[in-house]
Amino acid sequence: MNDVSYRYPRSKRWVVTHLSLKIKQGEFVALMGENGSGKSTLCQMMNGIIPNSVGGRLVGQVLIHGLDTKETGISVLATKVGIVLEDPETQLFTTSVKSEVAFGPENLSLPPEEIEERVRWALEVVRLAGYEDRLPTSLSGGQKQRLAIAANIAMRPDILVLDEATSQLDPVGVEEVLSVVRELNQKYGITILMATDASEMVARLMDRVVVLDQGQLEADGTPGQIFADTGLFKKLMIRSPQVSQLATRLKNEGHALPAFPVTVPEASKGLQILLKGTSPVLHVEQTKLAANTSQAPAIQVEHLNYIYQPLNVHAVKDVSFEIQQGEFVALIGQNGSGKTTVLKNLLGLLRPTDGKVIVAGQDTHTTAVAEMARHVGFVLQNPDQQLFAETVEEEVAYGPKNLKLEKGLIEQRVADALKLVGLEDKRQEFPPALSKGDRAKVVIASALALDPSIIVLDEPTTGQDYRGCHQIMQIAQSLHKQGCTVVFVTHHMALVAEYAQRVIVLCGGKLLLDDVTEGVFARPEVVRQAYIIPPQITELGQALPVGLGLPRNPLTVQTMSAAILSRFNHKK
Amino acid sequence: MSSLIAYYPGKTIFHRLDPRAKIIFMLLVSTAIFTVQEITIALIVLVIMILFWIIARLPVRVLWGFMKVLLPIIGFLFIVQAIFYPGTTPLIKPLIPIGKGYGQITLDGILFAVLLALRLMAMIIMLPLVSFTTPVQNFALGMVKMGLPYKLAYTMTTALNLVPILQMETGVIVDAQRLRAMQSFEKGKLGDKLRAYPALVTPLVIGSMRRAQLMAVAMDSRAFGASKSRTYLEDIQLHPWDWVFIILTVAFSVVTVLGSYLL
After folding, report:
1. For residue A332, what are the domain limits?
2. Is residue A311 part of a domain?
3. What pLDDT, in 10s, does the model give residues A427-457?
4. Among partner residues A87, A310, A376, which is closest to B214 by beta-carbon distance?
């Protein structure tokens, strides 16, 4: 890429400005940056969709193997560059796995024998051989993304672009996709460009990280170089791996590790050298939170069973738990573990097949959903599935209006809700035009305007960047401080460790664990059954030799660094 | 209610028929159903459709679902036809004479209502009989082979493919708004329901537009429309059995249509 600038049609803003970038054949490159930094635009430039299909104005040159994308047909570029998108549903359009993979080669008018051979090869590479006749919609998230990869590599491209292709997947799905992508890179020499936020993964797998900011190249280097650059991360709000964050904190206190770590083994080695000669300090156990048991529980689930008809799928099996008013609980588990079914039962969207669910004193069996809405605020994973009003204000007022509250009270509620999420100055804006983070906040405000005593968030941080994630979780935290019960579902373990007091783990429709957060992550062998991997910093604690006397299951970088630093202070 | 568009995988004779044969079947048989005037013939058509349903090993439960939806419509037809059909064989004297021949329940009216009901049932079985047993892309292929341009055929079938996705999406949106205390879909007057619509339709439309844009990216990256002479992995060929089926369909339709007029 040579000095490329681009703006979308009917837009004056240049999304990409004077960007030059060279990627060599066979490289494995991560593309990082905040939402809106131009990552997706760059991805779509690679195969000429921008500007050939989308339009707009592209200045400069994008060369793929010497071919100028502006002058090369999309069908030619399609055989050079494949692209996998974030949402699996948008890229699968046929009714069988086999025909999905054959779709591209068919468009190229290849002879049927050749297509047959390519389909066989592509499905084998992504480990979906034997699935030929399955319906793409019946596959799991990870399988769908692997199918999308197969459909692209069947075109035999030299380059594969993945635009946030793992961000909607659960940890197992992410691993499945990554191992396939890595094999494509190592065994078949395909160049990989992967837009992602998952820095731990980047550190583990990639050779090179390219960081974008506002359409410009901000940094370019190995993961070690990039993640060591603290200034960069402060400025851009990108998350570096937790062990890198730890190393940075230690360095700022004058205790730099011998080599800057990006992975657990590196950090573990470094720490052992650093701490040589210091003596363990008695580690003070964290006081456990005393649950408020005097009141009736906020949520009471007794022997909940749920069977989906007509297919007779037993999604939730005899699950029981109680959540007290004012708790902050994470509900985790792999996709298909029954999390969503449990949530829907809490909200009254589903009625238990057997067992009892009592939420805020209401038996969901006999309470209308709209009535439940007074007590339980629900924040949907994808804000775009509920925003419809012309202004933020109207959007937030929708719920209270449905409850037919009086005008003054509605205004009060809207004002309070918007203040809490920090959108007071955006009252008059058009919701779909807001940034993704702000759209999520509008949805949270809409739920809050009903003044619920319980708030349920279903994967609220999916598709959000680091800044967005933490803003959302901080809103949840401030609600919690006001006495609200918070239940959230997520795949993001670092957030669980940082925010939740208690964790409920579901696996195969059954309750696997229910404990304080530290207690859950202290049992990695158990949570791994639910395909959950503790946060990197916890893994570091578990990887260090016991004799070192550091916390075994630190939940946050802060805890760990405080523990290490106390050793040095003690020495003095 | 189940969707009319879905694919139930299977290996029955019906599944293996050439999509062209099935398209012809669909077109001719619907013409026949629309023109049939005789109750006995309509009954025969319906029985054959049910037989096909069983041969294609499609779930009987789904069939029941369709019938349950049809039942009120059929009931309504009976009332309307019984009262308003200008028949000549009164069964019951009119309670309120509306006009000559109207307002009395006649045998002709009842028979006509029976005929309409049979036609309706035959139709509602025939359509899914084809759509449930044919993968959407084979439909496209059939249409292309019958002379339609590929892009047009593909656009049509993609639209069909999107129906279940949109249905799912609608479900999510309705749930989300219900949790914002939208009540009108559980109970409420027509006016309230209409007022509730923007909250459902807006996210659906905006979402579909986003999806369409991304789909275009994905399709372009797989060289959609690269050449006019696209190849097909699973090429379709009319086997002797397909010809037999087509001839039977034609014969059957002709007999049905003519039979109605000649009898």
Report:
1. 299-536
2. yes
3. 998 988 888 889 999 999 999 999 999 999 9
4. A87
